[in-house]
């Protein structure tokens, strides 16, 4: 890296748009979620106008600097030389008559949720369930929301309406002018330019919903596994959703060893009464060992804040994640997932301090078994069948899949050098192990990929088209973090 190249970059923008490595603002602007990925580049550039962003993108593209475009860093993106931060892009424009929300690409979803409650009460956009996740990265990898069961994935055409992007030559366009590009941005990983704004569909939605966490001891694991399986068979109601997660440090509790308890995180937009009935989660509430941890009717911003207990891992934990997709949930699925966890703790005891096994249960692709007034014809779709076919978005999804979110990590201090290798080995065997004999889909969510994932397989029949578009918009492969379509691989140190 030539230091005079960095100096040219400094000279291109105003001093207030530069954050040097020794500045107090550097950590917030540059740190990736997992410290393992941190390359501590000397410079963060944070343009605050489109004009400035255009100049910077063109300069970086034509230079030999290694750079990464960053929204929140949750995807653990980093680079050797420069972080190009989008935090200067914070426009917020809710258009009630059009039912749209246009936002700058520098937001996290938690801030958007709070602003929606204030400026657009009774409206929601399909955004991430975790407050710290970025509005841009989550759309680029096909993100998921509590509302996904009803309206589809964050990146789906009915949700992500348009994207403003600065191309490699500094030109600013709305991607809808070039439909192939918009298609590629919907789950294709983002390496086509620098996104500066996103236009989302806003929907009228109840101001409060019911959300709660129910804790079960490890001794109830087999019962819970069966209850989850029955829930998966029974419900087609897109206004309820559920996660099944291990207890322990993810909930800011003490580590629970190789045999942790179970937490059921539930969401019911029909409200408390419905949630506590057998049409909702009554079967779980009735279990004699169930203990309610945090429950009640609340706005979406508070629902999404329930996950904030995970936040203490950010920047502290060497952490990686992988998300194999399951086609079915049977009576043993949760038991098998807990076996995988036990195996991980036996491999490395310290994983219990910074890891998670979380089953994201997805709805049946069907009309709800008990239609209600609030479920309209166009909302009768499940997240995985929501785009209208596998070719409609870059990341193909059209059949019911449950997302098995697996995270392995531990405190950075004292971590053995082989910790990442151990985590990758555990991830690579998780899919077939948890899916059960001969039920492995070999599919992975595009948001949590690693070098051992086959990128061609992840994007399936869409891969060749996606790569062609990539070569058109980035012929020199200068946008190469995360999913590197040109080289058909995932870049290490740029994915969580
Ligand atoms: C603990 C945890 C919880 C999560 N929970 C959720 C969840 O509830 N729902 C969900 O959908 N996902 C969730 N995710 C996954 C998350 O969506 C992805 O990690 C996503 O990539 C994060 O995007 P970001 O913008 O926040 O992160 P970043 O690391 O800033 O960016 C991620 C990727 O997007 C690219 N990118 C970012 N901004 C731009 C831009 N302006 N232009 C071009 N490219 C850009 C980056 O270069 C990088 O490759 C979670 C991840 C973690 C670690």
TrEMBL record:
InterPro entries: BBE, FAD-bd_PCMH, FAD-bd_PCMH-like_sf, FAD-bd_PCMH_sub1, FAD-bd_PCMH_sub2, FAD-linked_Oxidoreductase, Oxid_FAD_bind_N. Residues 372-398 are annotated as: Disordered. Signal peptide: none annotated. Residues 37-205 form the FAD-binding PCMH-type domain. Its cofactor is FAD. Keywords: FAD, Flavoprotein, Oxidoreductase. It holds the Pfam family BBE. It comes from the Eukaryota. SUPFAM superfamilies: FAD-binding/transporter-associated domain-like (SSF56176). One of its GO terms (molecular function) is FAD binding. Residues 372-384 have a biased composition (Polar residues). PROSITE patterns: FAD_PCMH. Belongs to the oxygen-dependent FAD-linked oxidoreductase family. This is FAD-binding PCMH-type domain-containing protein. It comes from Extremus antarcticus.
